[in-house]
Design goal:
This protein is mainly β and 353 residues long. The protein is 4% helix and 49% strand. The strands form six sheets. Strands 19, 20, 21, 22, 23, 24, 25 and 26 form an eight-stranded antiparallel sheet that branches. It has a five-stranded antiparallel sheet with strand order 2-1-29-28-27, with no helix packed on it. A four-stranded antiparallel sheet has the order 3-4-5-6, with no helix packed on it. The longest helix has 13 residues, at 2-14.
Length: 353
């Protein structure tokens, strides 16, 4: 009972307007946690945080890939790290690493071509060796038989069974695209002529018709985050603050291509699709705290995983990364911890930087 009352007091304090930070406690400070998908066993855990090796992809305790100028493989509990690609290759798209967990294969852009290799770095193949131009953004289709890539804002599609590439006529300004083999449709994200706008489009090859599905306008100083669920049924689009602290959330849109519905999550910090279920994890700003939730995309029900409460004097200020393990049962999150005064007579209780 006491804990419930205390938590209510903390939440009440969190929504008091901000004032001067001149004599506040230090904060927000960066914090890294690991926890299970139901919110249990949350603890401070920095094993996934190795920014000098690049963006992490959490497959298992023994397999973590990191993407930067190279691709590295390591274990969470070991200090050794393996460089998967040779020195002659440099990653030319450091934002996209496509992973086929079932087949144990990686797809990536290096030296402006699309390559594939095994999880151990063997069987390295240049999939676009006979094509010209700079390739980026490799993405597998829903049935894993096709791979899309982007070249000069256009969509190219590779039949992985025959090795044949085709270039789609029509879509322009594309930054990421996926092919839905089961319905013979392409879904792609493209910037409008005004660079402050990003939209999700559907392209039907038979009719050569493109249809805009949803669009966001990005404020000055922001960029965009976008992705597709592993089964290519759902698509997410969000504007993001360039500031790595991510001091406040922005609206997020989620599109379901099967029923045509669009959901909106307000004040969202970050999100992640679960590889093996319909769960969609996200963090939002609520009652002055950054909480952690998931939506069951089939039922629409939202479940609170963590309310953002840490202690009597600290709370989750923002969450800027959610790294789900490939089986969806465990995750790492990183963000910032905020602090408040014990002395309620102060004019302001939160400290921001």
């Amino acid at each position: 009972m006491f804990k419930a009352i205390l938590r209510a007091v903390i939440i009440g304090i969190a929504v008091i307007p901000l004032g001067s930070c001149d004599d506040m406690l230090p904060g927000p400070n960066q914090t890294n946690y690991s926890l299970f998908s139901d919110g249990s066993q949350r603890r401070i855990d920095k094993r996934l945080k190795h920014d000098n090796w690049g963006v992490p992809y959490y497959i298992s305790e023994d397999i973590v890939f990191q993407l930067s100028a190279k691709i590295y493989r390591r274990s969470l509990n070991a200090t050794q790290i393996q460089q998967l690609i040779p020195d002659s290759l440099a990653i030319s798209d450091q934002k996209t690493l496509e992973i086929d967990v079932d087949k144990g294969k990686l797809y990536f852009a290096a030296n402006n071509h699309i390559y594939s290799c095994s999880f151990s770095g063997t069987d390295m193949i240049n999939l676009s060796r006979y094509e010209e131009g700079a390739f980026s953004s490799p993405a597998l289709s829903d049935c894993r038989n096709y791979l899309t890539a982007i070249r000069s804002g256009s969509i190219l599609s590779l039949n992985l069974l025959t090795g044949e590439w085709i270039e789609l006529e029509g879509p322009t300004g594309v930054v990421y695209a996926v092919y839905v083999e089961s319905t013979d449709e392409y879904f792609y994200f493209a910037k409008e002529s005004n660079s402050s706008e990003m939209a999700l489009w559907r392209f039907i090859p038979d009719t050569q018709a493109s249809t805009m599905i949803m669009k966001l306008v990005c404020e000055s100083g922001f960029n965009f985050s976008f992705s597709a669920s592993p089964d290519r049924r759902y698509f997410a689009l969000q504007s993001k603050d360039h500031n790595p602290d991510i001091t406040y959330g922005e609206n997020l849109l989620i599109y379901d291509r099967q029923n045509g519905l669009i959901q909106q999550i307000d004040n969202c910090f970050t999100y992640a699709f679960d590889n093996n279920s319909r769960r969609f994890y996200f963090s939002r700003q609520k009652f002055g705290l950054a909480d952690l939730n998931y939506i069951d995309l089939q039922s629409g029900a939202t479940t609170l995983v963590w309310d953002g409460y840490i202690s009597q004097t600290s709370f989750s200020y923002s969450i800027n990364r959610i790294n789900l393990r490939a089986d969806g049962l465990h995750m790492f999150i990183s963000g910032y911890t905020g602090y408040r005064f014990n002395d309620y007579s102060k004019d302001s209780y939160l400290c921001t930087k």
